[in-house]
Amino acid sequence: MMIDSALGFLAFLVTWIVMIALVATATQRLLGVKFGLTRIVIATLAAFALAGMAIEPILSSLGATPVRDPATGEYTDPGVGAAWILLLLIMCFALIPMVVLVVAEVLVPPGSVPGPVEFVRSLRGRLSRGRRYSQITRIAVRNGLGPYLRGRGDRVDDRTGWVRLAGSLRQALDDAGVTFVKLGQVLSTRRDLLPAEFVEELGKLQDKVTPAPWEQIEKVLLAELGAPVEEVFATFDKVPLAAASIAQVYTATLPTGEEVVVKVQRPGIRAVVAKDLDIVRRLAATLETRTRWGRSLGLRDLAEGFAVAIREELDFRIEAANMAAVAAAPSGPVTYPSPFGRYCTERVLVMQRLRGTPLAQAPVRPGLARDLLDCLLRQILLEGVFHADPHPGNIMLLDDGTLGLLDFGSVGRLDASVRAALQRFLLAMNKQDPLAVTDALLEIVPRPEEIDEAALERALGQFMARHLGSGLNTASMFTDLFRIVTAYGLSIPPEVAAVFRALATLEGTLVHLAPGFNLVEEARAFAGGYLSAAMEPQTIKETLTGEVAALLPMIRRLPRRLERIASAAEHGRLSMNMRLLGDERDRRFVTHLLHQVLLTVLGATAGLMGVILLSTDGGPFVVQQTMRLYELIGYFLLVISSILVLRVLVLIFRR
């Protein structure tokens, strides 16, 4: 008995699967659009549930249902054209899931409601984010920031209160993890946004983050190197030299005698970073959707660029490759450490040790500030690979009096066209030419369809008059530039935003080396030097030689082509051919539009003809004495019209 029940259930299940497959195939073929499995199943169930109510009245009106004789109690055979009626009923049945799918397309567009699998994943993500939000809130409350999150914090009027609040913020960011420590590092360089007390306190996040215990670090080293540190290194100091947001740094000696620095990733940070980056992406997407300034700044792309940079920093093999790429170009007076590739893994980086003093403890040296700016500008404008995070914690004053640049986890890359546009932008700024600055800026950023170039030129002219040659603090320059970009609907690409972010960070770093250092004037001097080098006879000769070499093939072909044109004009054979719709995308669009129009016309024509035939008496009976041929054809035309109209509607409402 149990076997029969199991077989019966299996047969029932197979039947339903076959029916769903048939309905799905027929419906999607008729509508010309693919649908998700959930919608197909719901439409099929709705078709079977509504089939009886929808088809019974049709059968009754046609006299196609068996009729019970009250006198004898027997059912009479309708004696109808069974094949025609069956075909009509099948077509009517097919209309039901099509109508359900089109209505669902209008009321619940695809993607607006997650499917079962997506819903479960979304629920898990919401719970995970909720726990993270709760954890961050508890950290803020524990550090005394709860009232400020609710907008009810005490007003701070004295330096002692500012210092205490800045300390609470630093500790909260430190406890919250890598992403928030990175945020604190960026804020520590923005003297135009925060008071000096916050800048000073948040600056401690650059290399004074609470270190992880040695026991946890030792497990990472053992897993990555495959042996205890005593077997890999001749000596290893277990006290960290520095502790940053992503990694801790230790000193060691290789068996060959070289002194090295071992950078070890903090354990367990990947999961936390993934949650935080998900929060950042969602916040950026919300702001870009709901705010004009979010759309103009392209916050979604900026957040994605930030996420990519953070993920790259979590893979030390990428950092080792970045070090090699930067070191391939001349470094000038700035020194870069060299990695030891055989010891570098995803979570461990072994590199040359540079001996010196942290920048925060270095004496004032304007010459070194100029060297550092010159190094970064050369990386950005000439080499195309630049250090994207030059905060004071990543720079050292070496024992030989030069600077050392550390931590290449965050590196920006620019292609030749962007570098050329940035060069023109800086040269135009040096000459204070608003027209040239406007043209260069519109080459750097994606050009919008509508823009008031004259107003943008005036705004940039006022920007240069305010910031160039005024001798004022230049910390707000990038803020004003971003404000202009936002006001005119421009969107800065992530790689260019990384340039501005690196220069803004560098401005805060240069203050440690030379208080009052004018980044803008020094950058203009660099532009002047670059321009002078570009105008030297040898440089001009090389440039002209390259241009002429590129033009020679075209110049050789030009006389022959001119002769052909002149000959054709002389003999009256000169003509011009234009290819309409030469682009494949244009052809697809026109074809799609013609299909839509044709389907609409056919659907309307079939519906009109069906109504006319239904109102016409005549033709032979096909269903006893109740339906004539014209009526049957009219019903078929109405069904066909409905199918065509539904196909047009679903393509209109499909986003």
TrEMBL record:
Keywords: Membrane, Transmembrane, Transmembrane helix, Ubiquinone. The chain crosses the membrane at residues 6-25, 37-59, 79-104, 593-613, 633-653. It comes from Nonomuraea soli. Belongs to the protein kinase superfamily. ADCK protein kinase family. This is Ubiquinone biosynthesis protein. It holds the Pfam family ABC1. Residues 204-437 form the ABC1 atypical kinase-like domain.
